[in-house]
Amino acid sequence: MTRVAVISIIVEDSSYIEELNKLLFSYREYIIGRMGIPYKKGKVNIICVAIDASEDVINALTGKIGRLKGISAKTNYSNVFVEGDSTE
User: Fold this and answer.
1) pLDDT for position 73
2) Cβ(52)–Cβ(32) under 8 Å?
3) Average pLDDT, 10 consecutive residues per value, the chain (88 residues)
4) I need a labelling partner for 35 at 20 to 30 A (CA). Which of 21, 27, 76, 84 fits?
């Protein structure tokens, strides 16, 4: 069983964006969609990632993102649980 969640990411140091993109690419089988918003006035990038995966996978990805310098991440879980394989 998997859960649907949204990972909200704030990028304050864009020099680590390539590492973030590689990390997200490595979890691509779980990602439903992704939206990025460059906010020039605030000098940050805002990224929202919709994901369907087990809680362990979601927590692992969020933790790895949060360990990148200048990047923070928070997860918001829905109450939606999905039966079966999230890659279907």
Assistant:
1) 97
2) yes
3) 96 94 98 96 95 97 96 95 68
4) 84
What lies within 8 Å, CB to CB, of 57 at 6+ separation is: 27, 30
Nearest by Cα to 7 from 84, 85, 71: 71
Q: Which residue from 58, 57, 63 is spatially nearest to 77, judged by alpha carbons?
A: 58
Query: Helix (H) and strand (E) counts for the chain?
Result: 2, 4
pTM: predicted TM-score of the whole model, two decimal places: 0.89
Note whether 78 and 2 are within 8 A (CB): no
Is 39:45 a contact under the CB 8 Å cutoff?
A: yes
